[in-house]
Amino acid sequence: MKDRATKPPTLVRIAFSCLLLSLPLVSVSWTRAGAQRRTTQTQRRRAQRPAPRAPAAPARADFSHARREHQLACDKCHQFPSPNWKDARKGEAAFPDATQQPEHASCLNCHRKQFFARERPAPRICSVCHVAATPRNLARLPFPNPPEAFDQTPRARDFVSDFHVGFPHDKHLEVVGRLVAPGRETAGGVRFVTASFRPAPRRAQESDPKSCAVCHQTYQPQGKAGAEYATEPPKDLGERFWLKKGTFKTSPNHATCFTCHSQDSGIAPAPNDCNACHKLAAAASAARADFDPQLAEAMGINDGFILRRWRGRDSSGTFRHEGGGHPDMSCTTCHDAAKMNTLDPKTTRVSVASCSMCHITATSDEGGALNVETDQRKANPSFQCTKCHVTYGRAPVPETHTKALAAAKTD
What we know:
The chain has a domain at about 70-140. The protein has twelve helices and two strands, in the order H-H-H-H-H-E-H-H-H-E-H-H-H-H. Strands 1-2 form a two-stranded antiparallel ribbon. By secondary structure, the chain is mostly helical. The longest helix has about 45 residues, at about 1-50.
């Protein structure tokens, strides 16, 4: 009886001991399982989150002269000449000019709080002129003057000036010839020839007003050798349009104007009288240009001058000054210089009638480009006129063209 009475407690003790020994193992298992579940859930949540973005560069502020607060006298901000004018152009080409952004003192009068309200100025204020908003990097953004250097920078590709230049062609036609005798070299090395603007006969013009070339030269001329196109065209180009060298003409800049309008000559306006020529541009109009930015990008056109000139072409986007017989013609065949007002785009447009000498004929059989393309448009309404145009060729044939064709039949 004694053995039977003692067996159950022994078994109970053994079972209880086993239970105690197994509890840590169960606890560890539960802990590991819970940790695994939490890890899996964390991984799932992270996978569902959007990928972290790289820190965005500080937004660049655009300075506008059109703001009422910025419409001050030019010398309130711009120092003439700029401290770096001797470095902006090298050697003998250098002359006193405005060649960099204003100094900090010009900004502090209005933006003092933004400059000193924190440990460093607001980045958007600095980014108007500076590459980086840090006192360790003093590099400034390229300044639009001198244009020869600026046009080769990435910033020039999309640059649109707040100003238009008002140039009185009618005054300079006579003045250019009167100020400097024919053949005499000016201090800047530019030769002026007596201007003689008369209606040009329909032939190669030996008496062309050579004074036009004082301000306007063929940009990147192809000449008799060298690459034909502005950029390398595709191998399968065929008859498709691709921009060629010698398409555009240059416009005068300070290097030309200051030849006469210098501090020494005393001829008004003086070089530091900025607003005599630079007029605040009016609000952007709805006028279109014969220009396709996507096409220019596909061509790899990165030259700021070409892009700026091409964006302003409101007649023939493919016209090339160096092409065909154009160099042998008088400027006045196409341009009525005496009536040109650079502040009024209507006065600078080239009439299609100026093309009648070569490209508009009585019939298509005579080979007039306008005749041929117009006939193709009549036969196929979806045909695009690409002989002279980049984007205009998709639009209906304008009335000016139909009138020019009608006039050619009566000549």
